[in-house]
Amino acid sequence: MATIAPSSGRARSAPEADDACEDGFKPWSAEEARQWRAENPPLSPWPVVGVQALVGLAAVASAWWLAGANGAAVTRSVAYGALAAWLPAVLFARLVARRMQRQANAASALLAVMVGEGIKIVLTVALLLAAPRVLAQVHWLGLLAGFVVTIKAAWVALWLKSAKRRSARTE
After folding, report:
1. What is the pLDDT of residue 104?
2. Fewer CB atoms < 10 Å away: N or C end of the chain?
3. Residues 120-145: pLDDT tens digits?
4. What is the pLDDT of residue 167?
5. Cα angle: 46, vertex 48, 53; to 5 degrees
6. How far apart are CA 110 and CA 132, in angstroms?
7. 46 with 114: CB under 8 angstroms?
C-alpha cells in the first residue's frame, strides 16, 4: 500500500479541496450514462432469497437425516432458525424490488435500504425471541445452525454472482 504525500505543507480549505477533486472529474453525457446502465443492469434480490431458501431446506433435510426419528425437536429447531433468517430476507427483498421498480433517486433508495434493514433486524430478533414460545422444545445449537447457514448463503450467493459478472466482463 503506497503512502500519498501531501502536495504542500499547509492544510487546504474546503473550497480548495473541492476544486482539487473536480480537476479530474468529467461528467458523463446522457449516452455514456445509458451505455453504462446497459452494461450494468440492476441486480434482483430474488435469486439471493431463492438460494437462502434452498440452503435452509438443505439444512433441515440434513438435520432430519442426521438426527433420525428421535430428533424431531432438532429438525424443528433447525427449520425455525432457517425461517428466522429467511422470512425477514423475503420482506427486505420485497421492499428493495419495489424500490427498483419505481426508479427513485439515490437518497430515497438509500433510505429504503436503511429502513428495510431496520425492519429486518427487528423482525429477526422478534422471531428468535419467540422461539421458546413457538417450539415445544428448543435445541439452541440446531436453531443457531439453521440461522447461520441460511444467513451465510446470502453472502455466498452474492459473492458467486459478483464473480460471475467479473468473469463475464473479462471475456
Report:
1. 65
2. N
3. 999 999 999 999 999 999 999 999 99
4. 80
5. 95
6. 35
7. no
Q: Tell me which residues of the chain have a pLDDT lower than 50.
A: none
Torsion from C-alpha of 18, 19, 24, 27, nearest 10 degrees: 70
pTM of the model: 0.75
Give one DSSP letter per residue of the chain, joined into a string.
-PPPPPSSSSPPPHHHHHHHHHTT--PPPHHHHHHHHHHSPPPPSHHHHHHHHHHHHHHHHHHHHHH-GGGHHHHHHHHHHHHHHHHHHHHHHHHHHHHHHHT--HHHHHHHHHHHHHHHHHHHHHHHHHHHHHSSS--HHHHHHHHHHHHHHHHHHHHHHHHHHHHHHH-
- Cα atoms in the Cβ-side hemisphere of radius 13 Å centred on 152: 7
Asked if 74 contacts 67 with a C-beta cutoff of 8 angstroms, the reply is: yes
Q: b or e along 78-104 (b: 16 or more beta carbons within 10 Å of the residue's beta carbon)?
A: bbbbbbbbbebbeebbebbeebeeeee
* Grid cell digits, residue 63: 438435520
Considering Cα of 133, then 138, then 140, then 142, what sign does the dihedral take?
A: negative
Kindly write down the DSSP assignment for every residue of 16-41, as one continuous string.
Answer: HHHHHHHTT--PPPHHHHHHHHHHSP
